[in-house]
Amino acid sequence: MQTIHKPNWHIPENHATPEHIFLNRRQFLTTTTIAASAALIPNIAQSATEPPDKTLNLYPAKQNPAYKLNRDITPINVTSKYNNFYEFGSHKRIAAAAQALKTRPWDITIEGEVQKPITISIDELIRKMPLEERLYRHRCVEAWAMAVPWTGFAFSELLKLADPKPSAKFVEMQTFYDPSIAGGQKQIWYPWPYKEGLTIAEAANELTFLATGIYGKPLLKQFGAPLRLAVPWKYGFKSIKSITRFRFTTARPVSFWEDVQPKEYGFWANVNPEVPHPRWSQASEELIGTGRRVPTQLYNGYGEQVAHLYKEGDSLGLTLWR
To answer: pTM of the prediction?
Structure first.
């Protein structure tokens, strides 16, 4: 008899029904938390010089029942005030400064080793994509963690649009560059603009997600509006914010933090409790907003979905640096 192995986030179909939401206390509390958090997000107010977001009517998107959590959603009043976004400063309280970012108009360029190079507006891109909500864990390399409801689309949908050539082995992503509004970009010792990269296999993985919203509404600017990456099995610095460019390449790109300090921040950056950062342990993580520490899981608990991407014992796959 064939044995069917279901992923650890799988929810049986008869549990993914409206009745289940009311009968299952944890799911009910999670749903309530998301709704309450969404209510706390201010209406998206744009300046008179910034064109309106033409995708507002797409939120909230339907939640994909395949991607659930075994921990509570982190409230918006915590996550929206504790953000890494070095373009606006090296501290966590950058939310106010990030409001200077103008997210409309915003163009996305897809180029390099692709059959269909294109430049497309963010609103047109979002409307081409099947939006959904997914609940993901997020683990920072600084040993703190949160859990959030992203809205967006699978990276595999962008691959369909780009149609990479067989020669494409990697995809490099790049964020905006505008020191006039992003004070951190005036620090010339950093290799601006911010860049990150994935292998094509990583980009095509079912978990790899391009987020356009959070808590049922469009992304706030401090979260990396209007488009950011979410790769939940990797440390958070891999999840590049405010993307403007996707470049498909034959050679592995050098990412921003790898360029700054390769002995501390590597290209692969898979979450691994057994490999400490040179300056702190990765064995446990703090759930922000709670003061609690919990053990870190290999691949942030997503090993069943991504371990096959890396050879067993391959330091390039599992260690933090190199």
So the answer is: 0.86
